[in-house]
Automatic annotation (TrEMBL):
Listed pathway(s): Cell wall biogenesis; peptidoglycan biosynthesis
Record gene name: murA
Family: Belongs to the EPSP synthase family. MurA subfamily.
Catalytic activity: phosphoenolpyruvate + UDP-N-acetyl-alpha-D-glucosamine = UDP-N-acetyl-3-O-(1-carboxyvinyl)-alpha-D-glucosamine + phosphate
Enzyme Commission (EC) number: 2.5.1.7
The organism of origin for this protein: Brotaphodocola catenula
Modification 2-(S-cysteinyl)pyruvic acid O-phosphothioketal occurs at: 116
Name of the protein: UDP-N-acetylglucosamine 1-carboxyvinyltransferase
Length: 416
């Protein structure tokens, strides 16, 4: 089993190139199923979820190739065959296949999706969107089946801005002739990216990145080449590392115009940040200042970065209070952070973190993707050696977190 070994208390100085967006590339890869042709995707992050998605697409009959950071997906011979539980259960984004399979073939069968265990993450909003388009839904145990002889355009209203359900509604609607409107959809940058990708393929979509999206479906699609934006969560993770360690780091390719709340929180904690279209330069001197924050749907502070900022608060000056409004089990890394000496009190959807200086090294276990990244960040500021187990969770979303941090001065290495 791979373990990340960290010797803490080293400043960070240098440059990191931010990988392509995990949450952006996966629905786009699923969207390649809509076109009976070839899709080329560049700036693809080499992460386990991408490898898993490529395996599922190949099982569905696509020809896939990954050369460097470029993926080529030929979906001419794709089929709507049931995806084995062993494959779809590895990541939550496997649910994204339902929309394009339903749109293209009128049939999709999968199991309830896998991924990180963050509490109640139902797919009912996805299924309600399919029903609005005229599909029938059958669930049996862990299996989900959606099918339709004829899909029709509709107005889909979401009571909550679910990212995945919004993406699935878009993907299913692209093949449906007529105007489909999505009201109350999620506004995350990754949804805007998906709409841009589909438009590059010939689809007619307006309002991507807003709460009201219009899809003029049934338009013929064509081959396309599309570049994935930088990963705002990875960039935010490395800002968290700098808040803990101090120094000066340039993040090339950071999508700064989609990171407003993350940058604002880092500045409140004492960081100096200069942004440009190419990325950002961040400087941190002294100890981070504790402050309160709350998570929420975009454009609010992203829940995916909450564990990292909990790790920052664990060694900050003062006490900070976190309100988690998205996932009720997003505080699960607190138990492992306490092994490093963190003072964290959980009260329902609130966490109170009193900064300790210094934390101390220990052996800890990553139990999910973002919690694992938080343990790495905490290890950077701990005295002595920290060993982070459960690397298979971290590798789902980070190409090589130890490589990136080592090249800016952290004493960190992946040990097989």
């Amino acid at each position: 089993m791979s373990v990340i070994r960290i010797q803490g208390r080293h400043g960070l100085n240098g440059e990191i190139h931010i990988q392509g967006s995990k949450n952006g590339v996966l629905p786009i890869m699923a969207g390649a199923l809509l076109h009976r042709g070839t899709t080329v995707i560049t700036n693809v992050p080499i992460i386990q979820d991408v490898i898993c998605m490529m395996g599922i697409l190949e099982y569905l009959g696509c020809r896939c190739a990954l050369e460097g950071h470029t993926a080529v997906i030929d979906a001419i011979h794709a089929e709507a065959v049931p995806v084995p539980c062993a494959m779809s259960g590895q990541m939550r984004s496997s649910v994204m296949l339902l929309g394009p399979l339903l749109g293209r073939f009128g049939l999709a069968v999968s199991r309830h999706p896998g991924g990180c265990c963050l509490g109640n993450r139902p797919v009912n909003l996805h299924l309600d969107a399919f029903r609005a388009l005229g599909a029938q839904v059958r669930t049996e145990g862990e299996q989900i089946g959606v099918f339709a002889n004829h899909l029709h355009p509709a107005t889909i209203r979401f009571p909550y801005p679910s990212v995945g359900a919004t993406e699935n509604a878009i993907l299913a609607s692209v093949s449906v002739p007529g105007a489909t409107r999505i009201i109350g959809g999620a506004r995350e940058p990754e949804i805007e990216m998906l709409c841009d990708f589909l438009c590059s393929m010939g689809a007619k979509i307006t309002g991507g990145g807003t709460a009201c999206i219009l899809i003029e479906g049934g338009v013929p699609l064509h081959d396309t080449t599309f570049a994935i934006d930088g990963d705002r969560i990875v960039a935010g993770t490395y800002l968290g590392a700098l808040l803990c360690s101090g120094g000066r780091v340039r993040l090339c390719g950071a999508p700064v115009f989609h990171m407003e709340e993350s940058l604002r929180l880092a500045e409140r904690m004492g960081m100096e940040i200069a942004v440009s279209p190419e990325g950002l330069v961040a400087r941190m001197q002294g100890r981070a200042r504790a402050c309160d924050f709350s998570t929420g749907p975009y454009p609010e502070f992203p829940t995916d970065l909450q564990p990292v900022m909990m790790a920052v608060l664990a060694s900050a000056s003062g006490e900070g209070r976190i309100q988690e409004t998205v996932f009720e089990k997003r505080f699960s890394c607190a138990e492992e952070l306490r092994k490093l000496g963190a003072s964290i009190i959980i009260e329902n959807r609130f966490a109170r973190v009193r900064g300790q200086r210094p934390l101390h090294g220990a052996r800890v276990q990553a139990k999910d993707l973002r919690g694992g990244a938080a343990l790495v960040v905490a290890g950077l500021t701990a005295e002595g050696e920290t060993l982070v187990e459960g690397y298979e969770h971290i590798s789902r979303g980070y190409e090589d977190i130890s490589r990136d941090l080592a090249q800016v001065g952290a004493e960190i290495a992946l040990r097989e």
